[in-house]
Amino acid sequence: MKLSGIHHCAIITANYARARHFYVTVLGCTVIQETFRKERNSYKLDLSIGDGGQIELFSFPNPPARLTQPEACGLRHLAFAVRDIASTVNELKDKGVETEPVRVDPITGKRFTFFRDPDDLPLELYEC
């Protein structure tokens, strides 16, 4: 078996309108399809990321909160590849999104930083 890449990452939000604005307007993801699933009282928003990857953004009534920070068992964070981390960090700050200080990966020598989405989920920028 040979995997050819990551197709998508699924995220559940507590506030659909706020999360939609963040991923579409702030981060610049492109809407592929938006579906309201009446039987679940839930939205599913398919978003495209520049390299062909996708995010599935789900809303559910009263989803449980994330129990712990990224060190919990399970998905740790979602990382976005960027060409210029400094300009991306500045653009996020201009849009009111705070980031951690930029660090250097001691293994790869690449620069990276973390920030949070509106549901306090950990997101990473990784300079490629």
Automatic annotation (TrEMBL):
Keyword check for Metal-binding: yes
Protein name: VOC family protein
Pfam families: Glyoxalase (PF00903)
Domain of life: Bacteria
Taxonomic placement: Bacteria, Bacillati, Bacillota, Bacilli, Bacillales
Keywords: Metal-binding
Matching InterPro entries: Fosfomycin_Res_Enzymes (IPR051332), Glyas_Bleomycin-R_OHBP_Dase (IPR029068), Glyas_Fos-R_dOase_dom (IPR004360), VOC_core (IPR037523), YwkD-like_dom (IPR037478)
Boundaries of every VOC domain copy: 5-128
